[in-house]
User: Fold this.
Amino acid sequence: MTSAARRRPYGVKGAPYGFLIPATILFALFFALPIGYAVYLSFRKVHVSGLGLGSGARKEVWAGVENYTDALTDSELTHGALRVLGYGCIVVPVMLGLALLFALMLDSERVRLAPFTRLAIFLPYAVPGVVAALMWGFLYLPDVSPFYYVLEKLHLPQPDLLDGGPLYLAMSNIAVWGGTGFNMIVIYTSLRSIPAEVYEAARLDGATPLQTALRIKIPMVAPSLVLTFFFSIIATLQVFNEPTTLKPLTNSLPLTWSPLMTVYQDAFRKGDIYQAAAEAVIIAVVTLVMSFGFLRAANRRQKQEATR
Assistant:
């Protein structure tokens, strides 16, 4: 056997690793390296000598956990987390409930114009978040909104959706409008993968469409529901576009309404990238812990149901 023939199997075995090299490099440069640098900055701070003038008066030094202590005791970050919690309690149940309802309706045999309906429901997801927030923001303004014009002509109450409690509903509406379509597609795809024999057996047993949906369809798409809930939680914790875009339209939104807005203010308005890095790391860790805990609980429940 020639040397070229002997080298050929090794080349074939090493091909998958060669295909992984570009993705690995991109992952390291644009994901792992920025995260590592943010963690590094979170343990640093600027030490100012005297008036901070002249060369060497300002230098970067080791800060230990001081930035993390300041972040955890920052009332703005805590209040932002509580606001996002209330926001998520509205967005996640409503968005997933509508996504499941639309998916079940589209999976029905009696539905008409299913392709057009799927596209119409999914289309808001294709609209960029900033554009969607601007569009809804102007629809919420009494001076330019056609809805307020109609309410005025009908002599009906005209609530201010950008002030007080209704502000949560206004921002939640933007998130629900934009995210329902994506979650609906995920659930609908899972519904379409259920074997037709299962539905046929249910019909032979005399199950009604409602019973089929409640006892067969929803339990069988439970993994998709878990996945969409997981994505929705992450998106809720990272809310930034909606409140930032609506801020110029109302005085009811503080500049630190959400934790990510606090990070932005500290990094780019105050110029304290070290404090902002610590806050970003805390948000990332909280998101990871919550996601891991939820997935572990969901997997444990699935295993318990499988052993019954």
Observations:
- The two ends are 58 Å apart (CA to CA).
- The longest strand covers residues 44-48.
- Strands lie at 44-48, 58-62.
- The chain is about 75% helix and 5% strand.
